[in-house]
Amino acid sequence: MPLTLKLISQHKIIVVEDCYSERCLLLTLLESMGFTAQGFSNAQEAIELLQREHVDMVITDWMMPKISGIELCKTIKSMPCSPYTILLTGNSQNAHLIEGIESGADDFIAKPFHSGVLKVRILAGLRIIAMQQKLESHNQALNNMLLKEQGYLNNLKHDLSLAAQLQRALLPKNSDLSQGWRVTTEFKPAQDLAGDLFQCFNIDKQHIGFYLLDVSGHGTAASMLSFTLAHHLSSSQQIWQSLDLAQITNKLNREFDDPEQCGRFATLLIGIADTNSGEVEIINAGHPSPIIVGPQGARFVDDNHLGSQLPIGINKQHSYHSQHFTLEKEEQLLLYSDGIYECRNSKFGSFGLAKLLKNISDARELPAEKLLHYLSYSTELWQEKQAQDDISLMLISTTTHLAHCDS
Q1: What pTM does this model have?
Q2: CA-based angle 407:210:269, to the nearest 5?
Q3: Does the domain formed by 171-406 have CATH 1.10.3210.10?
Q4: Which regions of 17-122 does DSSP assign to beta strands (E)?
Q5: Any idea where the domains of the chain sit in the sequence?
Q6: How far apart are CA 353 and CA 337, in angstroms?
Q7: Which of 33, 151, 193, 395 has the least C-beta neighbours within 10 A?
Q8: What is the pLDDT of residues 268-292, one digit of tens each?
């Protein structure tokens, strides 16, 4: 694109030439072409100006006393925003020209020069200057955008951190329950926010309620949906007082909402335990079967995994039914998310339920906190310390088991 006269007049050019007549000739030619030009008889004066003011282009002679054109070019190129430099030389030998370019000159013109050649060389230089200025402007705009984006990401990271703290606050602490029963937990989210949530609480003096839900997907969307479901399952909801597990689960399934319409669902293991008799009622909505940990080893509540029903949110008309079993003396009930057994090792593949069950059996005599830590750490090593999914563990211990451990 040709440079307009207005743009030409905006650029400042200085001429450094110790010969008065040649300096005057150059200044006259530049002014006749519409350029704003200023002349200097020596390099030192030019350097002093360059240190004070912005200059777009320098046209300098090679042979000058004290500071030569070559030395001036080297000084100019050491400056932060160096101007475009054209070196005038009476020697057109290749070695001579190479030395001039290597010193920092952007172009050269051999003496004697034609005024037309001088003009096109200057215009070419100004086009390069214009492109550099445009690039700098674009870079500045990009930097501003990046700074703005970084500020946004910092705010988002802060918000996610607060949300993660809120999510962890909803999880049960290791604590005592009715009739001396106890709940112990371990939680390791794959990201800041998790799709897993679980809880265990007293319903009344005889019964405790518990659940572990896992919303499909990861990140913010999954965690927000898990927050919503957790609200419906809150211990403050009066529906728990009915002790009707099917009613609680069916109501949750009907109220499940997938606002993004992206096929989200939730697996759920929900139950009520009678702390006097040890009888436990559970509903398994697409979740892994809980594990009973006893003195003789570990076993699945549902050995054939046939008790699992549709996950929450698949079919709002589905009617859930429960199954019953009893926690015998010295037995514990372990609830867990699929993240602990579906994790993969790059060499050995999936961790698997069989390995999980064996690890539990091998470590069954450990205290509750140490058992859960052992299971979590084993999985962490298996997936080479690269978290692939949320890991949630909740161990419910009976009074008799606690008494046995204390002894």
Answers
A1: 0.62
A2: 115
A3: no
A4: 36-40, 57-61, 84-89, 107-110
A5: 5-139, 171-406
A6: 11
A7: 151
A8: 999 999 999 999 999 999 988 999 9
